[in-house]
Model the fold of this input.
Amino acid sequence: MRSAVSIAILAALLLTTPGAAQQTELDGSIWTRFETRDITSGAATTFTWMQSRLGAAMTFSPLVRAYVRVQDSRRLGEEIGLGDTSADRLDLQQGYVELGTPGESPVWLRLGRQEYEVAFGRLIGIPIWSPVSRAYDGLVAAMSVGTGSRLHLFGFQITESTQTTNADDSYLFGAWGQVPLSDAQTLHLIGVHDRDNAVSQTARTTLFSQLDGRGGGLRYRAEGGIQVGTVEGQDIVSGSLLAIYAAVPWGEDNRGILGLGVDRYGGNANPGAGESAGFSDLFGRNHRFLGFADLFTDPRANLDGRGLLDVDVRVTWQLRSDLQLRGDYHHFRLNDAQGFVGAKLADEIDLQLWGQVLEGLDIRAGASWVGAEDPLVDLGRTAGDQLFGYLQLSAGFWGGAPGGRPR
Done:
């Protein structure tokens, strides 16, 4: 599949007007993040990440564009020595060709290595917190369907067995429909199939829906999904997700937002022979939903299929137009606590300051506290209570970068 992608990209470039691009826009960014984590009864860790990027968006004609971005991501001090120039963390982070204009052309295609996000990023998202982010090799096609509705079709190859680092092929395919129900409501209908051709095969289908709406100052999001098929050679049971989030403005000039959310991941402590329980987030943006302490990167795998209930209370305050203070309280519980004295997993408090502190300089600073209960420790998610702190400073110019400044 990667060979086909490379050939298609080359063919698209050959079809463009020979010579230099009509317009080229550069973008670049660099950020560094200090992190420290202290775990009761466990080891403390402290390190600093650095990410550097340089990209170029090229316009060849009104309907043909290309984008290339290289990235270097590393922990400071991980090199062999001061003279190490191996650039072992340097990579092509994105490289694709676009045909058509997003949101305007009847059909729009993007082919190559690319970042991609579906709806609010619950299943497939762009994790801007990650030092290496996430990019997919494949094709995205979008087309207009009726008045105001759009349909996205996508197909990606995650791994290829011909590569020495991967023993098997794995793929991700799907469709995403956006249907405006009114000026204030949008319905998202999503179907995703992920497949891993290992001996213990995964062939999993996820059906998902999301409703976004607003009215009278209230903003809300409701989500629901099921997963069926097999994961690692076992049949999926109790593969369900229900979630709702609502927020209202408060304070002077509505500078604050008060939100409440509930996420319920289905689970079963005792699935039958040849069965595996729980709902997986696949390639989602976990921090948006389950806290910054990274207790649950995949609720199905992290909790042995027992399921998760998360109640999230959120408060934000706009210090100024480009600088925000945010606080989250998460209460985590097991859906199926059979074998444990109680269902409570942990309480988590996240405090965060993010936005622009100076023109051209962004900050993302925060601290998290986790009060862990015995089930969380017994399931191997932590050795005890946690304190997690970070300070990230970033500078950049966004030029033709897709999506502009990351948020």
Notes: Residues 13-18 have pLDDT under 50 and may be disordered.
